[in-house]
Structures are given as structure tokens and as C-alpha cells.
Write a structure and sequence with these properties.
Layout (H helix, E strand, L loop, with lengths): L3 H30 L3 H13 L2 E2 L9 H6 L3 E6 L2 E6 L1 H10 L1 H11 L4 H26 L6 H8 L5 H13 L7 H8 L3 H12 L3 H19 L4 H7 L5 H12 L3 H12 L1
Helix pairs in contact: 8-9, 9-10, 11-14, 12-13
């Protein structure tokens, strides 16, 4: 059991480096072919899957750009129109990806068949996990009724609001600038402030103050840190400022909360 955690950490690091290297390789290929990520994925889809109905091509793919570049062409079939690779595209695919694929096959040929089956099963299971979490993350872009209504009134999208909230939670101990929050949402400070208030009913400053007070309540209940240390830990410049804001939001002072906790603990 001793070496297992370090081995898992090494595998995790290697997977990340492999993904980074793959992304870098595709980025270079994209520059060579003057294509974006979606168009490269389309070429891969056609290369490995063969002719594909137009309605099965991923959304966001610039098919006309691929056609103008001479990489794909449309064909009419009984079931409708489909997209196929041109000979020009196949030549580029063989030039750019062919050697990489050949080296990969050579590497896999060094493994026994039972090992390859283990690798194949692992990759299949890993892909299922990745798909599940991709769907989870993609759900952040969905707009439930209340969020949609807020956005129609000028509020933030759920994804932008989530990014801002995550940033606030991770940086409560530091000074949080509205400009940094606006950058996380991809808006100017003026538009962000207005949109944030539409979405939450609060200004960004008020939201940050409330989150600091909530974090402080947890520390008051779960730790014996001095009030001054708690004030600094949640981003207040001083204990007096902490007490003022805390009382304004909760109606009580931090000292009262702490005394009440100690009384209940006795």
C-alpha cells in the first residue's frame, strides 16, 4: 500500500502532461491547416468514422470554411447530404498525423495482448467518467427559469455567476476588487455591477461582505482563534471593522456569538 499513492500521483501528472501535449500538437496542426479546434475535430470524425451526414456534424463547425479550404465536400445520398474528406485532406492527415499514429501503434505492439485489453478497459471506463463530469460542468451553462428571467433583465449567466462566486470563496482572506470579479464574468465593471445585482439582489461588495461574515460564523463555531485572527482570516482589515460589518449583517457581535457557543458547550 505504501507506493500506491505516489504511483497514482505520478499517473495523474502523466495524464495531465499527455493531455497538454496532445492539445499543443493539435494547436500546431491547426496553425498549419489554418483551422480551429471544431474543424480539426470534424476532420478526425470524418477520417475515423467515414462519410458523415451533415446533421451529425458537431455544432459550431464551419463547414463552409472546410469546403473553401478544399478539405471536405458534400455528397448527395438518398438519406440526404453528407460530408466526406477530399484527397487533399487525406494527404494532410497522413503527413501530420500519420507518423504519430505509426509510433503509437509501434509502442502498443510492445505490450502483451492481455495488457492491451486492460488498457482498453481502463480507457473506456475513464472516458465514461470524463463524459459524466463534462455533462456536470456543461450544466453550469444551462439557465433554469429563475436564472433565465434574471438574465433577460440584464443579469449574469449561471456560468458567469458561478465563476464569480467560486473566485470569491477562494479569495475571502484577500482584498477582492470588483474589477477582478468583472473580468471573471467577461464584462466591464459597470455592466458587471449592474448584472450582478440583477442576479443576486445585492451589490458585489455586499455579497463579498456577507460571504466573509458567513465564513467568520463558521470559524467562531469551529475554532478557538482570537477574534482579531478571525477578522484577518476572512479578509477584514481590523477587528473593529469585522465587528461593525458582522453586527450590521447579523444583528450580533462576534463576541456575543462566541460567548453563546462557549455557554452551550459547558
Amino acid at each position: 500500500m505504501g507506493p500506491l499513492p505516489s504511483l497514482l500521483a505520478q499517473i495523474g501528472a502523466d495524464v495531465v502532461q499527455f493531455q497538454d501535449a496532445s492539445a499543443e500538437f493539435d494547436a500546431i496542426v491547426g496553425k498549419v491547416l489554418a483551422l480551429g479546434r471544431a474543424e480539426l475535430s470534424c476532420l478526425a470524425q470524418l477520417h475515423f468514422g467515414g462519410p458523415t451526414p451533415l446533421n451529425a456534424i458537431a455544432r459550431g463547425t464551419d463547414v463552409e470554411r472546410l469546403e473553401l479550404a478544399g478539405y471536405v465536400q458534400r455528397e448527395a445520398t438518398r438519406g440526404g447530404r453528407r460530408l466526406v474528406l477530399t484527397a487533399h485532406a487525406r494527404e494532410w492527415i497522413e503527413t501530420l498525423w500519420g507518423p504519430l499514429q505509426a509510433d503509437g501503434h509501434q509502442l502498443m505492439a510492445t505490450l502483451p495482448e492481455e495488457h492491451l485489453r486492460i488498457v482498453a478497459g481502463f480507457l473506456s471506463a475513464a472516458r465514461a467518467i470524463q463524459d459524466r463530469h463534462a455533462a456536470r460542468v456543461a450544466s453550469l451553462l444551462e439557465e433554469p427559469g429563475s436564472s433565465r428571467a434574471a438574465r433577460q433583465r440584464g443579469g449574469l449567466s449561471p456560468a458567469a455567476l458561478h465563476r464569480v462566486k467560486l473566485y470569491v470563496e477562494a479569495h475571502l482572506a484577500r482584498r477582492i476588487l470588483v474589477g477582478e470579479l468583472a473580468r471573471r464574468a467577461g464584462l466591464s465593471v459597470f455592466h458587471f455591477t449592474r448584472a450582478f445585482r440583477q442576479s443576486t439582489g445585492m451589490t458585489p461588495h455586499a455579497w463579498v461582505q456577507q460571504r466573509r461574515v458567513e465564513r467568520a460564523r463558521g470559524l467562531l463555531s469551529q475554532s478557538s482563534l482570537p477574534l482579531g485572527d478571525i477578522a484577518l482570516a476572512v479578509g477584514f482589515s481590523s477587528q473593529s471593522h469585522f465587528t461593525t460589518v458582522f453586527r450590521r449583517i447579523t444583528g450580533l457581535t462576534p463576541a456575543v456569538i462566541r460567548r453563546d457557543r462557549r455557554r452551550r458547550a459547558q
